[in-house]
Design goal:
This protein is of the alpha/beta class. The chain is built from 15 helices and 14 strands. The structure holds adenosine-5'-diphosphate (ADP). Adenosine-5'-diphosphate binds near residues 209, 283 and 330.
Length: about 400
């Protein structure tokens, strides 16, 4: 069975076509600058890459081009689009309705439209991607896989903010959590690596990329996570501040005479690693500068490591102990320096890593980097959200 995975952004459309008989990626690519000028990169493992600048006025033209390439003589991987059994869509926000991956019919689209106010950045492009597939792929089932659905079991005392309760009932302001597909994937992989049933495990998963979040998983169920109403809450990120004293916001607005949009831009695009270091949002550059003794770069890295440590501590408390700590995504998978800073002096919790294993583990592979004496396993697991989306879509089709 072949499953197409679509991740539509405001001016981009990423895709991967999976053969689910063996989990192989047949083709993947990226349409960029949709609505601006347009370009596509289409790859097939082990074969030539197709790259072209081409006008892509809307997501419809982008998807039409993807479908054309997938069946083309030169760059194709299937003989007909009807070979694609279903499409899985990455959808950042499922609101309070979607506690699991679901079929996207007209009613679902109508619901997603109602929650655009609480998901203004990611909602509209995801809906465009779904509508393009519906128009161009006839009756192929469309399945939505939501970043928020992994968090639907988190109890209310952990999701409702200590604000006037009406802000929840009237404006839906509560914590939703994001990156759920990644945390779900790596926690399942961790159980697999440990040869245990996930129902017997307590796991903390750290997804550290441009956006970062930490999740506490008890018996396969997320019980708490660091992101909240938006993907802004939690630890400092590439350009996002993460959690700060909320009163800083109105203070800056008054002191710097900033509008709501300007302050939103400041905490989303000018803060985090970039804001503190003044060097980059890319942790590689910040870490390099820190190693060379740059004060602000060092401050940014220490701030990030300490914030992760604090979340680990609070989740160890909420879970009453853990069996495994997992690092994933760009920084989690690649930065031995950050992993070692986070895990330093956590032996009280049973967490200790082997510095040799941490430094020499092969990039892009999964690894157990715990020291032999550690009670808790510390694992590095490459995330694969697209595969998880394909798997959910496949399971949905089988039901
Ligand atoms: P996204 O959230 O956009 O999916 P990724 O998971 O790809 O992001 O992570 C991007 C982050 O990973 C960047 O900050 C990048 O610097 C970081 N990263 C990638 N490789 C390394 C490395 N070798 N050392 C430290 N950080 C790295």
């Amino acid at each position: 069975m072949k499953i197409l995975v679509i991740n539509a952004g405001s001016s981009s459309l990423k895709y991967q076509l999976f053969d689910m008989n063996n989990g192989e990626v047949l083709a993947k690519g990226l349409c960029e600058r949709i609505g601006i000028d347009g370009a596509i990169t289409h790859k097939r493992p082990g074969k030539d890459t197709f790259e072209k600048e081409v006008a892509l006025p809307t997501h419809d033209e982008a998807l039409a081009l993807v479908l054309e390439l997938l069946v083309s003589k030169e760059y194709g991987v299937v003989s007909s689009i009807s070979e694609i059994s279903a499409v899985g869509h990455r959808i950042a926000h499922g609101g309070e309705k979607y506690s699991r991956s679901s079929l996207i019919d007209d009613e679902a689209i109508a619901y997603l439209e109602t929650i655009v106010p609480i998901n203004p950045l990611h909602g509209p492009p995801a809906i465009k991607g779904i509508k393009a597939c519906k128009r161009l792929m006839n009756n192929t089932p469309q399945v939505g896989v939501f970043d928020t659905s992994f968090y639907s079991d988190i109890e209310d005392f952990r999701t409702i903010y200590p604000l006037p309760y009406e802000l929840y009932t009237e404006n839906k302001i509560r914590r939703y959590g994001f990156h759920g597909t990644s945390h779900r994937y790596v926690s399942a992989k961790a159980a697999e690596m440990l040869g245990k049933d996930i129902k017997d495990l307590k796991i903390i998963t750290c997804h550290l990329g441009n956006g970062s979040s930490i999740t506490a998983v008890d018996k396969g169920v997320a019980i708490d996570t660091s992101m909240g109403f938006t993907p802004q809450e939690g630890i400092p990120m590439g350009t996002r501040s993460g959690s700060i004293d909320p009163s800083v916001i109105p203070y800056i607005m008054k002191a710097k005479n900033l509008s709501a949009n300007e302050v939103e831009d400041l905490i989303n695009r000018k803060s985090g690693l970039l804001g503190v270091s003044g060097i980059s949002s890319d942790s590689r550059y910040v870490e390099d500068a820190a190693k060379k003794g740059d004060y602000r770069a060092n401050l940014a890295v220490k701030m990030l490591a300490n914030s992760i440590k604090k979340y680990i501590g609070s989740y160890v408390a909420e879970l009453n102990g853990i069996d495994a700590l997992v690092f994933t995504a760009g920084i989690g998978e690649n930065s031995a320096m950050l992993r070692s800073m986070v895990c330093e002096d956590l032996d009280f919790f049973g967490i200790a890593i082997d510095s040799e294993k941490n430094a020499t583990m092969p990039r892009g592979s999964q690894a157990d980097i715990s020291s032999d004496s550690a009670r808790v396993k510390t694992l590095v697991i490459p995330t694969n959200e697209e595969y998880m989306i394909a798997l959910d879509t496949l399971n949905f089709c089988k039901e």
